[in-house]
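yo

u said u wanted the structure for the complex thing, so here. seqs first:
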Amino acid sequence: MSESKDKNSLPLSRVRTIMKSSPDVAAISQEALYLTGKATELFIQNLAMISLETNESKNSVDYKDLAEVVNSEDVLQFLQDIIPRKIKYSEYLSIKQKEEDES
Amino acid sequence: MAERPEDLNLPNAVVTRIIKDAIPEGVNISKEARLAISKAASVFVLYATSCANNLALKGKRKTISATDVINSMEDMEFDQFVEPLKQVLEEYRKEQKSKKDAASERKKKVKEEEKTAADSDEEGQGEAMEEDAGGEEDTPVGSVVTISDDDN
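structre next:
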């Protein structure tokens, strides 16, 4: 009931589902759930802001800005698999070629 | 709990609103970037949960506590979130307390009302009508005229 009061708050029921999807989690206190939701909101704001700062013209946020921060900030290393830098197929081929040459 | 894969995503509408509130007005954010941030937020929840759960396990507790979540931010090197979260927790606790107080207050009130209702039934209806016995008061008739010469 109180969850939908603030339109900019993440739905805690969904946050709980995600938390519970981790197999070794036994139980989550109500306070811990609430704080995780808030922490995630802070994280979203933070990620948006640093991506904007990375943007060349500083008036838009594009995928490449996100990929840039994710792959240059150590703190965001955990996101590297889901927000990879985009590369051209030709670049991919040359990377592959290099790998093969090295091995 | 029926778990569909989309249940592990956060609602895009809410995520978009949070982003729009964070960045200055007029700044455009591409759909691809929004989806990526949304996914990142889900992964963040999992990462934080796993860190907090480890702290709980270390403390031989089964339930993740608020302190575990706050301390997990340090493990993740999101130290800048620690202070805001402490504040949020304090506000949350105050809010919960006042909700609780209000609920018990309401209960008390209901009880009191029931009690006073019972009491007033016992009271006799001893209110006599006060008769207006016509004590006529002198009302001044005629007006007092003040003449002022000030204007001149």
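The helical segments of chain A are 12-20, 30-54, 63-72, 89-102. Strands of chain A lie at 27-28, 60-61.
cya
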